[in-house]
Amino acid sequence: MDLDTAKQELEEFIPHVRNISDSSIRKMAGRDLVRFKQFKKQGIAVKFGRFSQKENNQIRKNVEEFLSITGIDSAEKLLFTSRYPEDKETINRLKAEHLFCEKLSEGIPRPWRLIYYRARKMFDPNNYKGRYTKEEKEKLKKYHALHGNDWKKISEMMSRSNLSVAMKYSEIKSAINYGPWSKEETQKLMHAVEEVMRKRMEMEDANSLSSSEKSHRDLLIDREKLYQKLPWTEIEAKVGTRYWRQCKQKWTTILTSKMTKGQQLYRGTKGLQAKINLIKRLYEMKAEDANEVNWEELSNAIGDVPRAYVQAKFYKLKVTCVPFWQKKTFSEIVDYLFEEKLPELEEKL
User: Which residues does UniProt assign to the signal peptide (predicted)?
Assistant: First the structure.
């Protein structure tokens, strides 16, 4: 298939495909197009964003079955073959013979590359190793000075995952302030967000709509894009003294205060009512996974607030009220809150 045809056919499933590199498009045409068409026949749309519990389970099942078929003795050898140079040739031959790409992506309506990255994250024994020690942070700085952004090499030297070392270096590369935000920092954050949003709107204005459509479109941009998919690492660089996650949390706080005109929505009787509404709405949705929840719509249960605010309140509820919540599925957590916590909150109200 030639490149233009591949782009045209993939565009039906991935609207932003023309922003993807030509080499990636060629790989997707080979690995994904047939799968996407099969999913379309079944009425299943291609998905992006966070993986659901169901998809994670399917990845585990696919990996375990492939190990069983090939006799490769660990998921680490399968997904991090370069760590085992003595077995590399044999493992790669088995992967080719038993169609590793097709097997790994079985039953998951997503681009293969994203499934592969997710599997690597799930099965990397160097992941989830807890907080970095002072010694590790110093090592990370030293290795970065030697090897730059070669996260693969640095991750092997530190026995941490690629993502973990990259994110941690982003956090420690400059003098980060962990205290209360100063007025100057808050102003820098607001200017940084305004700058990236203005740039985004100017790019969209290049494909200008009619004046009446543009007027309506701008209203939607104000509401939706104030807190969704902002380039936080770029904003972090503009603020200079805060880690990107701190910037995101602070921006949510600023937006919540402005959208609610400074009212304390989550205190006193209003707070109790907000928790009750949130639990009831989540229970009514019957969602199996947090990814299936329309958090934007759910924010009305508390008030006119950003979705991140509602997600943070749900997180606090499950951590403080649900025993062993880490071992429960999303639906089990919601059921527990509805059956055990809700009556207590209603009585208190």
Answer: none
